[in-house]
Amino acid sequence: MAISAKLKAGDSFPTIEATLLDGNKVRLGQPQGEATWQAVFVYRGKHCPLCTAYLNELEGYRQAFSDAGVDILAVSGDAKEQLEVHLENLNISFPIAYGLTESQMKSLGLYISLPRSEQETDHNFSEPGLFVVNEHGNLHVVDISNNPFVRPELGALSRGLVWIRNPDNNYPIRGTLDY
Question: Thioredoxin domain: which residues (predicted)?
Fold first, then answer.
């Protein structure tokens, strides 16, 4: 049985870069602009209609995340050409990156799947994952799935991040107790 290392809440987020369509590298977990936190949404790739729908839905919550001081970045293991084709079905304004390697997927503790056929995609791909990285570079919220049907509900997530980020709530990183 293979053992997969999963990131734990409170861990330092690993240094991982992917590429934006303009060719610039982006570091996952490093917020842009005014935000001090970043939500990294790892999606399966252009072959997944559920990912397309989720990313388009996420666009509707972009302002709620921004109001909470949380930047959004989406990334997959797709190639540049696959992302270019995928953008025809996406209506998003947040950054989206490509080129996440299988090694990087493993360092994030993501579940990795084989394509069912060449028509699906031409590479192994990660299943969905969400990593919310705080201003200290630590993993504050983590959600990984082994299939495309289980993902955080975006309204609850955005409201929860507002609550977590409110200093009056003094809400710590949860799930840090080791067994």
Answer: 7-166
